[in-house]
Amino acid sequence: MEQKQALIVIPAYNEQNNILKVIRDVRENLPSYDILVINDCSKDNTSAIAKQAGDGVKVVDLSYNLGIGGAVQTGFKYAEKNGYSYMVQIDGDGQHLPSEVNKLFAYMTQTESDMVIGSRFLDIKSFQTTWTRRLGIKVFYYLFRLLIQTKITDGTSGFRMYNRKSIELLSQFYPDDYPEPDAIILISKHGLRIGEIGVEMREREHGVSSITPIQSPYYMTKVIMSILFSFTRTRTRW
């Protein structure tokens, strides 16, 4: 299999007002990276607008709305099948800065981590989410310290880089619901190394988050239960 270097995976659902800018930012800052947009059965023109970006951008249109977990796993399967050494998840809402990807890569190389998380809360001033979500993230921080003895300051961050080992693992086993926190448990249980580095993020310009302040307590409770279930579940043979 031909070995390729790096793939940017952009999961997108109803991001017609953001997707083209995200693609342009990736091209400007990461010209050597391939780009894959996963259109998660959007109801707007996300797919058509992404395809207007032209050569070098592949778009996968899912037949059903799978949610963030299914969309990102599609990216893992593509990266694994096509022999990529690295994969980076950049959300389609424009909050993640492609210019910060070099930080993730440098940290991965220096620490030999298998996954590196971009954190809004680690040694850098960045866009801050709502106080309810920050509270939930703090709870997850202590939960990760208790369960896997690892300090993760931004466990829900979707801005991540993966090497070949983690691509191969997560192409087979990636959580459907609340994938970011669950993936931390999954990677740790399989003996892979997790790193985290502070990155700058920005507030989305268009659209709104699917998790409102009213929904945050419900979301946090379900994520905690999912993390505990993932931790107690028998390790998958891999």
Automatic annotation (TrEMBL):
Domain Glycosyltransferase 2-like: 8-168
CDD domains found in the cross-reference section: DPM_DPG-synthase_like (cd04179)
InterPro entries reported for this sequence: Glyco_trans_2-like, Glycosyltransferase_2, Nucleotide-diphossugar_trans
Regions annotated as coiled coil: none
One Pfam family matching this protein: Glycos_transf_2
Entry-linked PANTHER family: RFBJ PROTEIN, UNDECAPRENYL-PHOSPHATE 4-DEOXY-4-FORMAMIDO-L-ARABINOSE TRANSFERASE-RELATED
Record-given protein name: Glycosyltransferase
Originating species: Paenibacillus plantarum
